[in-house]
Design goal:
Radius of gyration: 21 Å
CATH class of the largest domain: Alpha Beta
CATH topology of the largest domain: Nucleotidyltransferase, domain 5
Number of domains: 2
Number of helices: 16
Oligomer: single chain
Strand content: 15-25%
Bound molecules: adenosine monophosphate
Strand order of the largest sheet: 5-4-3-2-1-6-8-7
Distance between the termini: 43 Å
Helix content: 25-40%
CATH superfamily of the largest domain: ATPase, nucleotide binding domain
CATH architecture of the largest domain: 2-Layer Sandwich
Structural class: alpha/beta
Length: about 425
């Protein structure tokens, strides 16, 4: 069946049309028919782009003021006799929506019903920068494609298997009870996808392997995936916790925040901007949030770019050690995301020299790894495998849509892992 996958942000709608089915999932034979995006929604020069395998990128520039128009244009271009990939929207049999935050309500992907919509609405308070846009896209798609099922796939759901010792903060417990302040974790679709594909690459059942998945892109997070269950992850209440990211600070002493607010006379909005937009690789280096530019500047002798690189990789190593202890051993470490898939320097700085943990990187294989493929980059005898798996969150969304409709979508919740009320 042809599934439309929608990922709606504040000023963008990313989309893919994926052909998949229960049989195609089993054979890993599902395929992307088209992908694209509408960017700069709300401006007069919004851009719609469409990529179809084997064709040149098609682009349109026009004024698109809101998400409904954006989804309408997406459907129009998909049905375009020359540029499109379907004859009419009736070929779309279901829509899969990325929803960032499902709180504790959603431990699985679900068919959208009025109750589910209300649940996503309730989670807006937890993700005010994301869920409202996801909902906007959902409502637009429901209006434009009213006769097909819509499925919500949450970034947080995969991590609902974490035990309370991993998700409760050392704060007054009332804050958890009253406001749901706890660690949720994000990038769940990506961690799940790469864990499944790492197990396949190793030729072992997922239920038998302990994997540390490293999603290193503009946003970065790691997860400890213990025999298919996420038991810990580096992002927390928001995507700000954990690793150093493009523009996000990651872990820091919370006492820094009131101190900086007072000393720099910052408002809350300015503090938020500092932590989310002016920190990370960009904040430390003063060069860029883009790892390619950090690597270039470092190669030219820029000391702060080098420091940003060092902090970035050192934190990955620290979490790797922590997760090896948390899971009492590991069988594989997997890299994914724009940086994880493409930077041999980063991978080597993250896992080089960890022979004592059983990790033996094949430095040659690391340097020559083909792009866009799942490959092993550890030495043949390495006790712990090191892998690169290109992530594909849209494919997970399409596959979950099929699973939900077929009634075979598992819940990630682990009975007994609820926190005391
Ligand atoms: P993502 O958010 O997954 O698209 O990843 C974006 C990040 O991947 C940016 O920091 C890019 O600089 C980085 N990236 C993409 N290609 C490369 C590359 N060849 N080497 C290093 N970093 C890369």
């Amino acid at each position: 069946m042809k599934i439309l996958v929608l990922n709606c942000g504040s000023s963008s709608v990313k989309f893919q049309v994926i052909e998949t089915s229960v049989e195609m999932i089993q054979a890993n034979a599902d395929r992307t028919l088209a992908r694209g995006a509408v960017e700069k929604i709300g401006l007069s020069d919004s851009r719609l782009s469409l990529d179809v395998p084997g064709r040149k990128t098609y682009q349109e520039i026009s004024e698109i003021l809101e998400h409904r128009t954006a989804v309408e244009r997406v459907l129009r271009v998909l049905c375009h006799p020359e540029h499109g990939v379907i004859a009419s929207t009736s070929e779309i049999e279901a829509v899969g929506h990325r929803v960032v935050h499902g709180g504790e309500k959603f431990a699985s992907s679900v068919l959208v019903t009025p109750e589910v919509e209300a649940g996503i609405e309730e989670c807006v308070v937890l993700a005010p920068l994301h869920n409202p846009h996801n909902l906007r896209g959902l409502h637009a798609a429901q209006q434009l494609l009213p006769n097909v099922p819509h499925v919500a796939v949450f970034d947080t759901a995969f991590h609902q298997s974490m035990p309370p010792r991993a998700f409760i903060y050392g704060l007054p417990y009332e804050l958890y009870r009253r406001h749901g302040i706890r660690r949720y974790g994000f990038h769940g679709t990506s961690h799940r996808f790469v864990a499944i594909h790492t197990a396949r690459l190793l030729g072992k059942p997922l239920e038998e392997v302990k994997i540390v998945t490293c999603h290193l892109g503009n946003g970065c997070s790691m997860a400890a995936v213990d025999r298919g269950h996420s038991v810990d992850t580096s992002m927390g209440f928001t995507p700000l916790e954990g690793l150093l990211m493009g523009t996000r600070a990651g872990d820091l002493d919370p006492a820094v925040l009131p101190w900086v607010m007072a000393m720099e006379e910052l408002t809350l909005a300015q503090l938020n901007a500092m932590l989310n937009k002016h920190s990370g690789l960009y904040g430390v280096s003063g060069v860029s949030s883009d790892m390619r530019e950090i690597l270039d500047a470092r190669a030219k002798g820029n000391a702060r770019a080098d420091l940003a690189f060092q902090i970035f990789c050192y934190r990955v190593r620290k979490y790797l050690g922590a997760y090896a202890a948390a899971m009492e051993g590991i069988d594989a470490v997997t890299f994914t995301g724009g940086i994880g898939e493409n930077s041999p320097d980063v991978r080597e700085a993250c896992v080089g020299g960890l022979e004592f943990l059983g990790i033996e990187l094949d430095t040659q294989a690391n340097r020559t790894a083909p792009r866009g493929e799942g490959v092993l980059i550890s030495r043949p005898g390495s006790r712990v495998a090191v892998a690169i798996i290109p992530t594909n969150e849209e494919r997970v969304i399409a596959r979950d849509t099929v699973r939900v409709l077929a009634g075979i979508m598992p819940s990630f919740a682990v009975p007994g892992n609820e926190a005391p009320r």
